[in-house]
Each structure stands twice: as structure tokens, then as C-alpha cells.
């Protein structure tokens, strides 16, 4: 039941429902990873079953691939798709220019490849993800396991030369063992008090041997759909401005049928 969701989950849910409305039959769609993206996949699954929506989905993680298949969405690889019409994904932070931090779910590598191979990337997020300046959320950096401690030292040395404050770099764990990504790598989380120049930081990180990719998404996202716990949804476009709707008010027929009451 929708009323049983926490305000944050309601916000994620309505943002995902609004984004699902952007998807049309025939599209090749990048499917993000995380709890917000999972709502999107479920909603698209419902549209596939109820409306005959015909799409091909390119998942950004094994978890999303499994959910998409369970929902009856046709899953193909990025190489089979070649190029995508649209990617919809969550984010850990977004700023006023739609730059992002991603990778809280450890899927940043596939997420960045898929988003970059798309005509459009749309981010779906609850309002709490909006920040004035990126960096309160620890910045995930995916590194290969070989020599990861040396890579961490190189990252720390690079950060020392940059306009960042109070740095600590931690290995993401999964219980007692290092977290292993879908690509068999590890994640280093950079706890930065100030991120400084995000564009420069992203470039510097990717120059370091052992670094595969970083979670800064600069100039990749085209639209942000911001959900609020009361059902309001803002569709924000840097060029076209903001369109506000309420997904839980009158005409809230975008709700999943099994949650609608
Ligand atoms: O980047 C991600 C996964 O790598 C997610 O999009 C991000 O962590 C947001 O997750 P959620 O929707 O669960 O808040």
C-alpha cells in the first residue's frame, strides 16, 4: 500500500512513476540501479504487462537485470543495443547543474557507460538528494583489486595536491570482506569535506593507475525528476525549466495497480 511507504520511499516512488511515463514503445532504455531505479523497473514491468509496452532494457547491474526479467521486461546487453534512447537512474547527490555523485550501490561503472551511451539521461531522486555543492556523500571510486592499497595511496597523494579538505579514503566492505562489484573490482569511498572543482577531480582520479572509474557524473544528466513525500513531482530540465505534477492527487492513475489504494 502506498500509505505504508515512508515519505522518502513515496518520493522515490512518485519520481520513478513520472519517469516511467517518458518511456514509449520501441525504445531501448538503460535501467539504473538502486531502490529508486527498482521502482522504475517495477512500474515499467506493469506497463509491459498491462499496456503491452514494448521496450528493450539494458540493465546497469546484475540486480537490475534480475528484477527486469522478473518483471517481464526484455533484457539485452549494451552491445546488442548499440545505443540507447533513454537511461533512467537514481543518484546519491545532484546539484543545480545536474552534476551527480553516483555509486552508492556500487554500480557506477556500468551506470556511467550506459548513461553515456544514451540520447538522454534522466535522474530520479527524492528531494533530499539535492545539494548546493557535491561532496557530502562519500565519492565512490572503483579500483581493480590488484594493488588496491597502492592505488589508495596514489589517490591520497593526488587529493593532497587538490582543493579538497579533510580527506579519508576507505575500502567499502561487505561484512568482513571487501565489496566486490559486478566487474570484480573494489570500491574506495572518498570522504571529502569539500570537493572543490568536481570536473578536475573526476579527471585526476581517472588518471591514476588502478582506478577504473569514479562516481562523478559531469555533463551526463539531461533531466532530473525530483519526488516529494506528498506526491508532488518536479520534472526539471536545464533549458525548459520545471514542470510540477502531483502523482498521488486526483488523476493519480500512474500508481501501480497493486498499490493504488
Ligand atoms: O548510484 C547508484 C547505484 O550505484 C544509485 O543510483 C544511488 O546509490 C541511489 O540509490 P537509491 O535510489 O537506492 O537511493
TrEMBL record:
The active site is at 111 (proton acceptor). It comes from the Bacteria. GO terms for cellular component: cytosol. Its EC number is 5.3.1.6. It catalyses: aldehydo-D-ribose 5-phosphate = D-ribulose 5-phosphate. Pathway: Carbohydrate degradation; pentose phosphate pathway; D-ribose 5-phosphate from D-ribulose 5-phosphate (non-oxidative stage): step 1/1. InterPro entries: NagB/RpiA_transferase-like, Ribose5P_isomerase_typA_subgr, Ribose5P_isomerase_type_A. It holds the Pfam family Rib_5-P_isom_A. Keywords: Isomerase. GO terms for biological process: D-ribose metabolic process; pentose-phosphate shunt, non-oxidative branch. It is an enzyme of class 5 (isomerase). The keyword Transmembrane does not apply. Substrate binds at residues 33-36, 89-92, 102-105, 129. One of its GO terms (molecular function) is ribose-5-phosphate isomerase activity. Homodimer. Belongs to the ribose 5-phosphate isomerase family. NCBIfam families: PRK00702.1, rpiA. PANTHER family: RIBOSE-5-PHOSPHATE ISOMERASE (PTHR11934). Catalyzes the reversible conversion of ribose-5-phosphate to ribulose 5-phosphate. This is Ribose-5-phosphate isomerase A. The gene is rpiA.
